[in-house]
Design goal:
347 residues; alpha+beta; Nucleotidyltransferase, domain 5; Actin, Chain A, domain 4; 3 domains; 13 helices; 40% helix; flat; binds adenosine-5'-triphosphate; binds magnesium ion
């Protein structure tokens, strides 16, 4: 590296659903859906992010709208490079005197092949100075947990593609599980419930809208008592889709009770995975978590009653982090201050 060159330091949360860029000393400067719209005839990228997301399900024959990541890992290599290039070009000024260096987060428990694909894509788009860091650590730092202290903390990052469950202590992950169940599985559960019980075909964007408006986790009060559903889950909304019998467009009402029912299976899988990690946590750290509680980050943390449901099943306090969607970007942004130190331990 030339003596005169300066680094532009950035942290990228390359999420399955959303990508964020954090620039040192500035904070989060960009938030875009992780979608690339590609023109297959001309072999060029048409749009990226928000504009590309609008094209999902609406592309003409010569274009495809691609989500480059699936379950938190690179699914479409070239599109991942394009996504990263876009994020860097939008946020880092191009001058001869600065080279970017970046921290990018990834799920725990990825295979070596998946990790290598991410590193290659990052090096292609950003340059050689790239550090990969586990999402759970970034999320915990971003949520303000004392991860560098010798006490146990637990974070659950509920993303679009994965749920990262981790116990941390003294700056490291003690035990972690990356569950390939995230917000997108919740959307799919709504799609299949609506198809099966309401005989209506809906798209993924409608499903997400339903989840955000009416999504709720069942709690003790409502889990077994079917009778509660009507009074507990009063909200409802009109949805549009295609009637399975006639094949024609149709409107109908979906209730919060329907959505609670639809989400129960994926939510119970998340809760079970949290319980399994707690069972495997060394006793001293478990005692710390018992005292301090569990912190939820990621978009899924916003799901109504989810914290309460996890709290009931684990018998621990569960908190939703402030700015849950931003925690990973903020945490890896904070880690930029320790880049050289981390470079020794992470590379
Ligand atoms: N209010 C809400 N209620 C429920 N789910 C929500 C809400 N807001 C956002 N989400 C969901 O959160 C998910 C996106 O969260 P996030 O941005 O943390 O994921 P990501 O980082 O892109 O994915 P990953 O970390 O798995 O790679 C989406 O599935 C979205 O539907
Ligand atoms: Mg994420």
């Amino acid at each position: 590296m030339s003596l005169f060159k300066k680094h532009s330091e950035l942290a990228i949360d390359l999420g399955t659903t959303n990508s964020l860029v954090f620039i040192k000393e500035k904070g989060i400067v960009l938030r875009e859906p992780t979608v690339v719209c590609y023109n297959t005839e001309r072999d060029v990228v048409e749009t990226v992010g928000q504009d590309a997301q609008r094209m999902i399900g609406r592309t003409p024959g010569n274009m495809v709208a691609v989500r480059p990541l699936q379950d938190g890992v690179v699914a479409e290599y070239d599109m991942t490079v394009e996504m990263l290039r876009y994020l860097v070009s939008k946020t880092v000024p191009k001058t001869a005197f600065t080279t970017p260096r970046a921290i990018i987060s990834h799920p725990s428990g990825v295979t070596q092949v998946e990790l290598t694909a991410l590193r290659r894509a990052a090096e292609e788009a950003v340059g050689d100075d790239v550090l990969l860091m586990e999402t759970a650590l970034s999320a915990a730092m971003g949520a303000g947990l004392p991860v560098f202290d010798p006490i146990g903390t637990m974070v659950v990052d509920l993303g679009g593609g994965t749920t990262e469950i981790a116990v941390l202590s003294s700056g490291g992950i003690v035990i972690a599980r990356s569950l390939r169940v995230g917000g997108e599985e919740l959307d799919e559960a709504i799609i299949s419930y609506v198809r099966r019980h309401l005989k209506l075909l809906i798209g993924e964007r409608t499903a997400e809208e339903i989840k955000i408006n009416l999504g709720v986790a069942k709690t003790k009060k409502t889990l077994d008592a079917r009778g509660y559903l009507d009074t507990e889950y009063e909200k409802s909304m009109q949805i549009k889709g295609r009637d399975l019998d006639t094949g024609l467009p149709k409107d109908l009402k979906i209730t919060q009770g329907d959505v609670a029912e639809a989400l129960e299976y994926p939510i119970s899988r998340i809760v079970e995975a949290i319980l399994t990690i707690l069972e495997k946590t060394p006793p001293e750290l478990a005692a710390d978590i018992n005292e301090k509680g569990i912190t939820l980050t990621g978009g899924g943390a916003e799901l109504h009653h989810l914290a309460q449901r996890i709290s009931e099943e684990t018998e621990m306090q569960v908190y939703k982090a402030e700015n849950a969607l931003d925690c990973v970007a903020i945490g890896s942004g904070i880690a930029l201050n320790r880049f050289d130190e981390l470079a020794k331990s992470l590379r």
